Amino acid sequence: MSHADVLETATTPWQSPAFRRRTPLMFGRTYEDSAIELETFTPECRVFCIAGAGCTARILAAAGYQVTAVDIHPTQVEYAQSRALGGPEKAGAAERLLTCARKFFGLVGWTEQRRWEFLHLTDPVEQISYWDRFLASRRFTAAMNTVLSRSILQRVYNRPFVDSLPPNFTSCIQARMRRCWAKHPNRSNPYAWYVFWGERQIVPDPQVRPIHFVCADAATYLESCEPGSFAAFSLSNILDGASAAYAARLHRAVRHAAAPGAVVVSRSFAEPVSVMKSNWAERDRSFLWGIVNVMCIGGL
């Protein structure tokens, strides 16, 4: 089989659900700060994005972008489409895991009062001080080491996704949290509020343009598009756990469908292996990502 044949047949690990337990819905909301896309995409251009729970697609459409939202899982596409039409938010497997985790907050010293006080802070200096004094305890670190251990994660997530995580994942997440508190006011951070309190994210304004939803593999869909179809791409973290062959196939498909000067935003749980000027991870208020790569199509 030639190299070109390998690329054409390379498949994404998202072909199977990320979670070991078969659940109708994997994600009920999106844990990616679309403020990055809004800052970097040309206003009102044509955008390709991963549908997921539909949050990014809805926010971009509300800002006037022409959005095509693609996902390989029919359930996610149906859910994202229903949300765009005003349907109710539902809990997916990820949200149920977070709900279970919140039940243990009290055991690590995260009382309601302390979480409430922390979430209402607006000064990053005060936030770091409060975090170090009251929340970043040894009990919290021990709990994180347990919950995010490979043995536990492998019971929940399929192996390709666990294998793609950095070996010191607990330390990485704690460092990303602290990085977030040092930069972004908690009071206006919807991701901090949801993780620590369970509140909903900020609901976007009504759509300015309709969203075109498609159930397909991202690379397969982009390969079928006309050249120059999109001026911007929001790829989520679909390359986490993917083979090098699929990554090469997706990059080739993006270049094929990209207009000159197109901007590409991709995320990853991985840690960058070197200094990346294009890494905007510290600007993402969701504090999950090690890499938020923002680059022009020529550098892909």
Question: What does this molecule look like?
Answer:
The chain has two domains: 151 residues, Rossmann fold; 103 residues, no CATH class. Helix 6 runs antiparallel to helix 12 and helix 13 runs parallel beside helix 14. It is an alpha/beta fold. A six-stranded mixed β-sheet has the order 3-2-1-4-5-6. 42% of the residues lie in helices and 12% in strands.
Offer a concise description of the structure:
The chain has 300 residues and is α/β, with parallel strands linked by helices.
List keywords for this structure.
300 residues; alpha/beta; 14 helices; Rossmann fold; globular
Chain-wise SSE layout:
Layout (H helix, E strand, L loop, with lengths): L2 H7 L25 H6 L5 E5 L4 H8 L3 E6 L2 H11 L8 H10 L9 H8 L4 H12 L2 H10 L2 H7 L2 H5 L5 H13 L8 H8 L14 E4 L2 H7 L5 E5 L9 H14 E11 L22 E6 L4
Helix pairs in contact: 1-14, 6-12, 13-14
The CATH topology of the largest domain, please? Answer: Rossmann fold
Rg calculated over all Cα atoms: 19 Å
Domains (count): 2
Indicate the CATH class of the largest domain.
Alpha Beta
- The quaternary state of the protein chains shown equals single chain
What's the end-to-end separation, in Å?
26 Å
Enumerate the strands of the largest sheet in spatial order, edge to edge or round the barrel: 3-2-1-4-5-6
Largest sheet geometry: 6 strands, mixed
| CATH architectural grouping of the largest domain | 3-Layer(aba) Sandwich
**What's the total number of strands?**
6
Count of discrete alpha- or pi-helical segments spanning 4 or more residues: 14
Specify the structural class.
alpha/beta
| CA-based shape | globular
Question: Helical proportion?
Answer: 40-55%
Average pLDDT works out at 88
Low-confidence stretches: none
H/E topology pattern: HHEHEHHHHHHHHHEHEHEE
Strand fraction equals 5-15%
